[in-house]
User: Fold this.
Amino acid sequence: MESFEEIVCTCALNRIFGFAPKIGTGLISCFGSASEVFRTSRRTLEEILGRNSRYIDMIGPEAVRSAEAELKELSRSGISFACRFGQGYPPLLKECPDAPAGLYIRSVTPPQELWTPSRSIAVIGTRDISPYGKEWCTKTVSALASAQEKPLIVSGLALGTDICAHKTALESGLPTIGVMATGPETVYPFRHRDFAERLWRTPGCALISDYPPGTAPLALHFLRRNRIIAGICDTTVLIESKIKGGGMMTSRLAFSYSRDVYALPGRIDDIRSQGCNRLIREKVAEPLTSVEDLLDSLGLNSRVTARKICTRDILKLHFGDRLSQDMLNDLESVLNVIRSEKGITVEETAAAAGVDYGRAAHLTGLLETEGLICIDLLQRCFPEVKIFG
Assistant:
């Protein structure tokens, strides 16, 4: 577990590099710890950041003292700080290149215990939700509550779709997390203040933000907040959105992170469905046509147990009797690795599947030829078909 000094120094860097998280996390990686960044000489920082960098003067004892006082004050309100390179930070968010150095977390549950559900699902959409959208938002979250393994529901605490998802989750006994576009002590919109307190006081639930105390609810902050929602979750479900809605941005970010995206199709003349319809047309999102299909696709339906063993059957369907038993076993291992780690390189696949690089290259080539995966120019592998489980 990281020391209090490390947490304080990470918080200080998060405040300094809030709008440039790659620089802050890059410095931590470079020096091995956040505290070491503050111990390094000005000359070394100038060599890395540039002599004229506006950040040089910010990295000093005053930033650390301010962060320490802030965290001590926030702790009285049940707010802690989780470092990206420590415990309590969302595991999936660590994979994102633009993830913040840390997160403010308000919860009665220890941060490291918030991310134990096997699936984390963002349910998002327009503030101007229609009766159709509200019906499907409620249906979807309620259906997820029927799964044997309860998923974590993530949304943005906004009007419309977000608050519907949060409330349905709590009513259905699902853990839920609200990702805020303000400081951790401020709830926006104000009318959701009482509900927000009920949320963070419920075990397994939390309010989180990468913005320091005092941050106002500006439009830019909501746009940047969306990367946190997309990054935390393995799946994003877009209920309704206009062409340029915030839900569209979140869904595209999720797609760029190689996460699963679903969108609720709607009437072509309904402005609130145009965004969803476009994502489906562009193959960014799979259409949400029934809650049963969604549960199956996510591996949350009781019927999935029987379907989880189908990888080998699908390989037999594609390759027939052409494969030896050893080849079939290795192909199954490689394909399972690629399905669980979308975007994994051929070299990484070899290590994870327990085969040498040459064999992994041959096996992934076979899978690509059969249309089961695709390999991009960076040698990253992505599944091309839905193999449930």
Remarks:
- The chain has three domains: 1-76, 113-298, 308-383.
- The chain has a mean pLDDT of 91.
